[in-house]
Fold this sequence. Notes:
Shape of chain A: elongated
Structural class of chain A: alpha/beta
CATH class of the largest domain in chain B: Alpha Beta
Helix content of chain A: 25-40%
CATH superfamily of the largest domain in chain B: Histidine kinase-like ATPase, C-terminal domain
Largest interface: A-B, 18 and 19 residues
CATH architecture of the largest domain in chain B: 2-Layer Sandwich
Number of strands of chain B: 7
Number of domains of chain B: 2
CATH superfamily of the largest domain in chain A: Response regulator
Number of helices of chain B: 7
Shape of chain B: elongated
CATH architecture of the largest domain in chain A: 3-Layer(aba) Sandwich
Order of helices and strands of chain B: HHHEHEEHEEHEEH
Oligomer: heterodimer
CATH topology of the largest domain in chain B: Heat Shock Protein 90
Amino acid sequence: MKLRTLIVDDMPLSRARVRRYLSDEPDVEVVGECGDADTAMTDIDRLKPDLLMLDVQMPGASGFELLGRLPADKRPAVVFITAFEEFAVQAFAAEAVDYLLKPFDHERLRQALAKVRARLQPRRAGDVAARGPHLDRIPIKSVGRTDYVSTSAIDWVESAGNYLSLHCGKDVHLVRETMSQFEAHLDPKVFLRIHRSTIVRTDAVQSVEPLFNGDRSVTLRDGTRLTLSRSYRERARTVLGDI
Amino acid sequence: MLFTVIPWILLAGAMLMAALLWRDRRRLRARLAQAEIRRLRTQLDPHFLYNTLNAISELGYNDPQLADQVITQLSQLLRKSLADGEQHEIALRDEIAFLEHYLGIQKVLLRDRLQYGLDIDPAALSARLPGMVMQPLAENALTHGMSADGIARIRIRACRDGANLILDVEDEGPGLSGAGGSLGIGLANIRARLRHVYGDAAVFALQPREGGGLMARISLPFHEGFAFRETQDLDRR
């Protein structure tokens, strides 16, 4: 259940910035970007995004006019991204989920996404069945043959350059994949992303201790110590309780 | 008894008056400071500033050289817009440099949605004019003067026409109807400033451009080297 996102902003660099931030989010898929409301209308119709990252001032129609033209049932969740403070009231009247003032930092965007997820939860609960199947085993390709590792044997996953290291007991396997692609293979009830470069099997977690600045230290049953970064804490709480 | 009290009452009254006057003066000063801030706001749009900062923060990741260049241009713009007083006249050369920094940054922000050209008569480069009268015209052209294909095409001209300095900013947008007939505070500000310095000797007009679009034209007395009022004094001698 990816959050399919369309970026609508007339400034290319501003779109690039949002896109780069979103690329760090495993459950967000940027399905397109455009620079004006007319193109956005067509893109929304064609791509049916869950979320619009929407600028206010654009050539031609504004972000508000765009929303006005969309029938209520076709309206994605909206996060405004703008340099203008003065439209905030109007934005929330139009049921925007959040309102980001440019320039905003990564953390502020994450907060907005957390709100979006919360807003979309009831609507998406019914989609669970439609979600792509999670893999029971992971193919490990080497020259001339493919080995399989059972997903339930994976204790934790760490990113290492262009590869991921799958730690399974004493064994380590390398797969060439990105963190977010790999995370999509895994059942979120079994595995938990705790860091930009770390996923753990929640069963393997022995204990969690606070570190400074909101991070947490996670100790696995085999003694491995990992860091749970602040930005993933909110999601981890739903699995690991109040940590 | 009464005579000993009266001076005290008078003294208390005088102190109260002084306090009130002092308060009024402080209020007036605060109001003047606010007026100054408002003046700046009409000159460089704060949203332009935020959008530029937003762009720089992205360029930092993938094009540090361009980020560097935009920071330098922005610094030059800020230095000028924070330093120049309203009545301060500057040379056309400096006004054009300012415009080039401004349009250079806008080009980074808007990329292919902005095309512009400058056509400046070298003989006019030393002419004096009030600083930052052209930038609001360029800003107006690129926000309201887009063609139907979404591209703002702007041409800026400056030349000497006899006793006058002529400054034109043209776009190929929808013309006056596109601006809804309203001038906006930036343009109203230009008119007020020109009137303040040159009286009836300066003309500021918006007119349809030949072939479609809008032409903003400022015509003001051509003079070099001295402030305008001083030049008039010299003429009289």
